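User: Fold this; tokens only.

Assistant: Input:
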Amino acid sequence: MARKSITQRLAELEERKKTLKARLGKQERAQDTRRKILLGALVLHRLEHSNDPEFTRRLREWLQRELPGFLVRDADKTLFDDILGSAEIEANSRAAE
């Protein structure tokens, strides 16, 4: 069996490096998604189960201010109708005037 040339070995290493980078990128995206899910779950939990009405009110008001500018697609906005509710309707009616 013939030994591989240095050029061949370098090419194989480059290919392996590319594969590992792709795997790392996939892992990082999965971790990022998981962080977003957990953070969202915490926010929703605090809205639904907080024993501090003032905190809940301020959190809801902040979300009502920030979400409309953050959410672009109508389908995404629909997911947050329970939070946006009247705030979105008021903003739309003010914009129409």
